[in-house]
Structures are given as structure tokens and as C-alpha cells.
Design a protein that fits this description.
Largest sheet: 6 strands, parallel
Shape: globular
Oligomer: single chain
Number of strands: 9
Radius of gyration: 19 Å
Bound molecules: zinc ion
């Protein structure tokens, strides 16, 4: 009998989407090196829990709420992103004995061998670039190796899968195409989670390196616009890309429409022309919590999550599937609700007959391959 805990520790493990830089790290005096508890402060990631959960690497996303596409709107959100990178670098400096910034595919396994955790950096919603192509290189210099095109609304790069107004560009915009070429040049992995189906199709056709869905699900298992259908899943695999399964409850299990979507749409439409000053940001946060309380998340379990993984493997193949739980950003299911609980997933899959070789691909090898291929594809 393979011991699940031993096996989990041996594997190189990575989760490709976690929002800690704009969640816990934005709280005053919140110590990433100390143990916290979801029940107490809703946080899902810190170093002690990473160590307990045998997770070797995480992709830390610097997230931006979609708001006004005006010079003032861009300036405020770009500055907020720079602050999030600065505080993340400070956390890395303060905990350098236990974790370090990872820039290349090989850095993750190297840091594991050193007994340290690897943190890669990404952005979620390229709104924070403004309309400046040069900001891609600026973010690359800060350590960004993965770039998410959109969030819940259309932006200057691409259409979102959830914009209540429908498509604006019919996929990628001209600026979006320029950013794709720039990311290919620099070796940054392009991330189409949240993007519309047509934006993903355009990306698959235009990117010279494999793309990622850092936190997405399967529409055949849960028909949510954030998830992707089997045809696109096959196209993603054919391009060499990977889907990393999301643990966001409303995208894991089908939820009866109870007004949540309308309430979220109203909130998004109110924010779309706002400049994200600290006051606007705080008000948006309060409104988000009000919606979360009024329309509670469905109960989703580890078994529900596993259903997405196994469907993706059946459709795309074992070389194109991984883990992206969206912790600190709304993700988490019963049995997999913070970074300390990843061993439960290994145990569940082992119990279902998964081999060590397949678990190694799911947990890390597929993501490392995509990182490596993007790095190798650098054209500058
Ligand atoms: Zn997201």
C-alpha cells in the first residue's frame, strides 16, 4: 500500500492561483510566517500551513478589480499593483530561510530540494497594465511569470466570460494581441481563466507558447460561464496548454439561480466607471461581503472537486491538467479549504486508483513543462 502522506511529500506540488498578495498580505500586521486559521480570520495560506500541507510552490496573484478604463483609473490600479508586489517582496525577504521568489521552472524543484517553498508571481486582470505595453516588461522585472488577461468584466485586452453586457471585442483586442506577443517575447505564461471562449480561442491561435487556465473548471460538470467546454479543453491540450482546476464553490457545483448573479452584475456595473480610491475599494469590499452573506456559497466537497479533475483528464489527457484552487480568492471546498489540506486530494486520488506517475503530472510536472516551454520560447 502506498502511504498517501509519504507520496504527497515526495511529489513536487504547485497550485497556480492564490490571491494572498491582495488578501492577507494587504492586512496591517498580518504575519505570513505565523500560523493562522480560516475559522478565525478567513485566511487560507501562510508558511506554517504550506509546510503542513506539503505544498512546494504557489503562484501568488496580484489581483485587480475591474474599474474605470480612464487615465485616472489606470494610474490608481497600477500603483496599487506595484504596492502589492512591494509587500510580497518584503514578505519574501523577511522569510528568506523558508521561501523564495521563483522565476524559472527549475527554481521550484531546486527550492524544494533546499527545504524552502517557491513563490511564483502572476497578475490577475491585466487592467493593472493600463494601456502601456511597456508595463509588461516592468512587471516581468518584478518577477511576474504568468499574466491573466481579464477578470469578471471586459477590459482593454479581451472579453470576459461573465460581463453582463456581453462581448466587446469578439475575443482579444488589438492591444490584447500586442500583450500576447510581448509575453511570448519575455517568456511570461498567458492565463485565460475568466476570459471568454472566443478570447481563449484567439489566444490559442496567436500565442507561440503553451497557455494556462490557472483556475478554471469543466462546463460539462458544472455549467458556469467561468468554466470551459470539452471542445475548448481539447483545443487547449492540442496547443500544449494546461487547465488547473478551480475550487470556487459556485463553479464546482451547479447552484440554483437565487439572485446572486444579478447582485454581482449590479455591483460590477457600479464599479465599471469608478476610480479605485481606497474609499471605493473599501465600499466594494463591503458590498461583496453583503452579497456573500445574502447568497451563501453552495456546499461543495472534495469529491465534487475531484469530478472536475477526472473529467478534465478524460477529455484533455493527464498531461494537461493541474491544481489551481483560488484560495484567498473565494476558492475552497469541504476537505480542501486551505493550503494545509492538499494531502487530502492526493489521498482521495490514490484511493481512486491513481498512479504515482499521474499524480506527479497533475501536481507539478505539467505546470513546470508549460513554464519551461514559455521560458525557452523567449524571443528577445
Ligand atoms: Zn479569479
Amino acid at each position: 500500500m502506498t502511504d498517501a502522506a509519504d507520496l504527497h511529500r515526495r511529489l513536487f506540488t504547485i497550485d497556480t492561483h492564490i490571491d494572498t498578495p491582495t488578501a492577507s498580505l494587504a492586512r496591517a500586521d498580518w504575519d505570513f510566517g505565523a500560523k493562522h486559521d480560516f475559522a478565525t480570520d478567513r485566511s487560507q495560506c501562510d508558511l506554517p500551513r504550506m509546510e503542513a500541507g506539503g505544498i512546494d510552490a504557489l503562484v501568488f496573484a496580484v489581483y485587480s478589480t475591474q474599474a474605470a478604463r480612464t487615465p485616472a483609473g489606470y494610474a490608481v490600479v497600477h500603483e496599487a499593483a506595484l504596492q502589492a508586489f512591494a509587500r510580497t517582496h518584503e514578505v519574501l525577504r523577511r522569510n528568506s530561510g523558508r521561501c523564495a521568489l521563483a522565476l524559472k521552472a527549475a527554481d521550484g524543484p531546486r527550492l524544494k530540494a533546499e527545504g524552502r517553498r517557491a513563490l511564483y508571481l502572476s497578475i490577475e486582470n491585466s487592467y493593472s497594465l493600463g494601456r502601456e505595453l511597456g508595463h509588461v516588461e516592468k512587471f516581468h522585472a518584478l518577477g511576474v511569470r504568468m499574466l491573466g488577461l481579464t477578470h469578471m468584466l471586459n477590459n482593454d485586452l479581451a472579453d470576459s466570460s461573465t460581463d453582463p453586457r456581453g462581448p466587446e471585442w469578439g475575443g482579444l483586442s488589438p492591444f490584447g494581441r500586442a500583450v500576447v506577443a510581448e509575453c511570448n517575447r519575455l517568456g511570461i505564461v498567458l492565463d485565460a481563466s475568466h476570459a471568454s471562449d472566443q478570447a481563449l480561442r484567439d489566444l490559442l491561435a496567436s500565442s507561440t507558447a503553451p497557455v494556462i487556465l490557472s483556475h478554471s473548471g469543466c462546463r460539462a460538470v458544472c455549467d458556469h460561464p467561468r468554466n470551459i467546454g470539452d471542445d475548448l479543453l481539447r483545443a487547449l491540450a492540442a496547443q500544449g496548454g494546461v487547465i488547473q482546476l478551480n475550487a470556487l464553490p459556485v463553479a464546482v457545483v451547479l447552484t440554483p439561480e437565487d439572485g446572486r448573479t444579478a447582485a454581482l452584475s449590479d455591483m460590477l456595473m457600479q464599479l465599471k466607471d469608478a476610480v479605485l480610491t481606497p474609499e471605493v475599494r473599501a465600499a466594494a469590499g463591503r458590498e461583496w461581503h453583503r452579497i456573500e452573506a445574502a447568497y451563501p456559497n453552495p456546499v461543495a466537497t472534495l469529491e465534487d472537486y475531484v469530478r472536475h479533475i477526472e473529467h478534465a483528464v478524460a477529455v484533455a489527457g493527464i498531461d494537461h491538467v493541474g491544481v489551481g484552487c483560488d484560495f484567498d480568492g473565494g476558492g475552497g471546498v469541504t476537505g480542501l479549504n486551505d493550503v494545509s489540506e492538499y494531502p487530502n486530494l492526493t489521498a482521495a486520488l490514490l484511493a481512486r486508483g491513481w498512479s504515482e506517475a499521474d499524480l506527479a503530472k497533475l501536481w507539478g510536472a505539467n505546470t513546470l513543462r508549460v513554464l519551461e516551454q514559455n521560458q525557452r520560447g523567449r524571443t528577445d
